[in-house]
From TrEMBL:
Enzyme class, first EC level, given as a word: lyase
Species: Hymenochirus boettgeri
Annotated family: Belongs to the NAD(P)-dependent epimerase/dehydratase family. dTDP-glucose dehydratase subfamily.
GO biological process, one term: nucleotide-sugar metabolic process
Domain NAD(P)-binding: 18-186
Reaction catalysed by this enzyme: dTDP-alpha-D-glucose = dTDP-4-dehydro-6-deoxy-alpha-D-glucose + H2O
Top-rank taxon, per record: Eukaryota
Protein name per the record: dTDP-D-glucose 4,6-dehydratase
GO molecular function: dTDP-glucose 4,6-dehydratase activity
High-level lineage: Eukaryota, Metazoa, Chordata, Craniata, Vertebrata
Record-linked Pfam families: GDP_Man_Dehyd
Segment forming the signal sequence: none
InterPro entries: NAD(P)-bd_dom, NAD(P)-bd_dom_sf
EC number: 4.2.1.46
């Protein structure tokens, strides 16, 4: 948008985006990028502020007029329905989830509850509010591990842990809303690479999740930073910002226990 603010809509912003889980690892970067790139869009960050959340990562945009933070739980249907009624949301980017694979074996019911029930609550509210688009952030883990076969969204789902199972279930619920109500949706399977440090292995560990990249490349996406440079910058950033999270020290343990 290059700083040119197009005409405002009747409510002051051209669009209103709801980003769930915006105080988490991935969505906090998405929010910073959206707030900077779209000054005419209101970006509403809804986050419960669970143990893995950090509002410190959002300080660079926290005072901007097109950013708003709401603390709340996606599983609280009254709160979610009220939010949609009040905020006139146009687009939902749904990142909020319980994400820690090891913890998912200890708390599989909680993972199923937040990741599937919470997604249901959001979908119902989004449908009633006639939102334009619902973007569900899934995971490449829904396909299980493979050392040779590349996956795309038509591949069979073979999750190997309760986290991935709950994400796969939620993905199917999003697709069923499309079948029934034709809610425009996008399912995104983000792929991340991990820096290896030598700790005890997880009780169950998938070696890798190879994803086909043709579709992403056909949209024009290319990495701007080479992997080695990116991982080095990432480590430097975490070294400088280690205490942005309340329970940072615990993350050095190979198996996190819930705070
Ligand atoms: N990190 C990865 O490697 C990866 C890879 C593929 C897909 N994903 C998906 O991307 C999304 C974001 O992942 P992340 O790594 O940033 O996760 P994260 O754990 O860092 O962040 C999740 C955020 O969701 C919030 N949250 C949890 N329960 C909530 C609830 N009931 N109501 C409101 N907010 C709640 C937390 O407070 C946190 O801020 C998830 O849906 C995850 O499944 C992540």
């Amino acid at each position: 948008m290059n700083g040119d603010i197009p005409p405002e809509g009747p409510l002051g912003f051209r669009k209103k985006l709801l980003v769930t889980g915006g105080a988490g690892f991935i969505a906090s970067h998405m929010i910073i990028s959206l707030v900077n790139s779209y000054p005419d869009y209101l970006i509403v960050n809804l986050d419960k502020l669970d143990y893995c959340a950090s509002l410190k990562n959002l300080e660079v945009i926290s005072n901007r007029p097109n950013y708003k933070f709401l603390q709340g739980d996606i599983c609280d249907s009254d709160f979610i329905n009220m939010l949609f009624a009040r905020e006139n949301i146009d687009i939902v980017l749904h990142f909020a989830a319980q994400t820690h694979v090891d913890l998912s074996f200890l708390h599989s019911l909680k993972f199923a509850y937040v990741n599937t029930y919470g997604t249901n609550i959001l979908l119902h509210a989004a449908r009633l509010a006639s939102v334009e688009k619902f973007v569900y952030i899934s995971t490449d883990e829904v396909y299980g591990a493979s050392s040779y076969e590349e996956f795309d969204e038509t591949s069979p789902k073979r999750p190997t842990n309760p986290y991935a199972s709950s994400k796969a279930a939620a993905e199917n619920i999003v697709l069923s809303f499309w079948e029934r109500y034709k809610i425009k949706h996008t399912v995104s399977e983000s792929e991340t690479e991990n820096w290896l440090v030598y700790v005890n292995d997880r009780p169950v560990n998938d070696l890798q999740y190879p994803m086909k990249l043709e579709k992403m490349h056909s949209l024009g996406w290319r990495p701007k930073v080479p992997w080695k440079e990116g991982i080095q910058k990432t480590i430097e950033w975490y070294n400088s910002n280690f205490h942005n999270w309340q329970s940072s020290e615990q993350t050095l343990e190979p198996f996190l226990h819930e705070a």
